[in-house]
Amino acid sequence: MSPLAAPNPLARAFVDAAVVCGHPRNPDFNGEHVLGAGLYHTTTRHGRRCSSATAFLHPVRQRTNLHVFTHARTLRVLLEGDRAVGVEVFRARRLERIDSRREVIVACGGIDSPKLLMLSGIGDPHALEPLGITVAHALTGVGAGLVDHVSSGLLLQPRKQDLPPPASHIAEAGLFMRSRMPEPGFSFDIQFHVPPYAPPWAAARGTPRGMSLNAVVARPSSRGALRLRSADPMDPPVIDPAYLQDPVDVAVLIEGLREARRVAEAMIERGDIVKELLPGPGAINDLALEQWARTSAECVWQGTVLVGDRCVIAAWPLGVDRRKRFAGTAIFSAAGTLIAAARATWIETPAPER
Questions:
Q1: CA 164 to CA 170: how far, in whole Å?
Q2: pTM over 0.90
Q3: Is 105 within 8 Å of 77 (Cβ atoms)?
Q4: d(CA 102, CA 85)
Q5: Quick check: 340 and 112 in contact, CB under 8 A?
Q6: Which of 258, 168, 269, 156 is nearest to 213 (CA)?
Q7: 186-215 core/surface letters (b: 16 or more CB in 10 A; e: else)
Q8: Mean pLDDT per 10-residue run, the chain (354 residues)?
């Protein structure tokens, strides 16, 4: 993680204004505390993006026990009884079977991971059987519990119009804060992204220049779901994110918009901003702010399908070994993905307290 080499002046102005509003200045969100306002660190090295592949995979590409396949699609996990023994992939215009001697780790992200499990016959029988998929393990939570982060914000008019062009990841400044109804056990539930430029939708509305103050519901309560469109692995899944379905999310997002407006007013007093362009001074009450949020909302980060009414994991009562691996797991959630491991018994267990 590296600090920004040349942050935009408006990014620094936002941080200073947030501090004026009572938020602590935070020099490193990856440090001891996350609350407060500051500049985001980035995964860059020598002025260029440094992805996980660049940092960790490329240096060990010569290892004999590592083979990287690109332009390949995994069609299903191969099962023998209650064990994952390999995968079937489509590569170079043909089907190919890759056997596993130890374990199969499904790390396809929050959308494709449950999709792959369902294609492999792991999921809710009522959803799989009508598609002609043989149920190998009935786990009703696969595909349920979709969590995605919804965002809405203000569009502001900067005083200076000759801002430097983007030379970073755009959202350089941020803020982490607790709402009036935080979920127990979490230090924050609202996050801010502050791009010093207008989003594409603003340009489409005829406002090509501007600055965004975006509030994100960081701990959403709404739960969506995804299901297979068909048994064809090439078909995309049907996704229902259920954005702002839970009234708690609506209330948290409205609180975030109000805090964004408070910081914006401090930026106006400092001379950094001329005025609020959207939603504008007319959006004062909760109903108006909710309407604006639903009109301008967009998703941030990635969706994660973790659990449904039942947790699709077997690891919690078994503990973790010295290598930080869950002992005896069939499927467990880690870093927002589902992991399927061999040598395991497929069981369902109630989700632990978060």
A1: 11
A2: no
A3: no
A4: 8
A5: no
A6: 156
A7: eebbbbbbbbbbbbeebeeeeeeebbbbbb
A8: 85 97 95 93 86 90 91 91 87 92 79 89 93 90 85 92 72 93 79 86 73 92 92 95 95 97 97 93 94 90 47 30 33 35 31 36
